[in-house]
Amino acid sequence: MTPLSFTSLSHTAQLELLEQLTRTTLSEHYGLDGQAVQMQVQQYEDNAVWRVTPPGRASFVARVSVREGRPAHQQRSEMRWLESLAESRAVPVPGPVTTTDGCYVVPVDVPGHDEPCTLALLHWVPGTAEPPYRQPGVAEQMGTATAHLHQNVATVELSDFDRPVWDAETILLKGHAMNDPTAHQQLGPAGLEALRTVAERITPALQEGGPADRGRIHGDLHRENMISMPDSTTIGIIDFDDCGTGHFLLDIATVLGSVHRIARKEPGAYEHFAHAYLTGYTRVRPLPADFDRLLQPYLLLRDAFVLNFVTAAVPVNEAVATSWGPGRIAGIVASMQDFLAGHPYPGTLHD
């Protein structure tokens, strides 16, 4: 019997199928008893992610790339960088776990699905997601963790690092939101025009900077991908699925923008966080050149990145479509329109 199309299944049914396939893969390739492990779903958007805990053992993270996942060779580059970061011990990260044959990535055959899927297994980073940014010392720790991530580029060469380039061309000019008709419907004519005008205005600034300002970046370094470690003195970083090469300011803007969204209603809270975060960063390495002038363009670039993700996810992921997706699109469009009307973009810092 021909299996049902994977995309025709409900979100819950898709996740149930992927969980069973993951259990089988853990048994066949990692020497774990897949039926005995406890699996706690962490998220299911482009990737299905579980916390996997074998009886009597430490936990792992199982990530199944389902929709437009990175090719296996790019995932291997991600795992090699994570391995390098884990070995350095400068910042806690989820180190990769290889199969019994020494492989970083395993193909997974999903019945009724016409996209290649893969599974990667990583060590679980203990701690609490979304560090309490108001707590004394935490903002500085978040800045220090970001800087150690960027400093790894200067100390460890990965000559075969093959990941996306996150720049104006990739995110704006060739991005999903700018080029896909379904995305245009979600943005609306006014939203699409705002995005196009923003791209024209900020692209020259995004092309500035030399080799010292660019390198391996996380690519999605919002607060939910930072972990307050049990020792309360260290911040870990997780979810490197969007890692690539680009300007270090994109990571910095991503952290700042994600905190601004929750701190903006309390007068002075964001500015206090940002000052402490940047202080922590500069204890490890200098800020990129022309930080004050270029932060705003990179805050805009980050939100264009989010638009690409959300507009691509809404048609295929009912959880995104029925919860936070449309509201996030509307909020970003409104912020871009305000920027074009002469207002500072959310997250911009002032003297």
Automatic annotation (TrEMBL):
Domain Aminoglycoside phosphotransferase: 45-287
Domain of life, per lineage: Bacteria
Protein name: Phosphotransferase
Pfam families per record: APH (PF01636)
Family note: Belongs to the pseudomonas-type ThrB family.
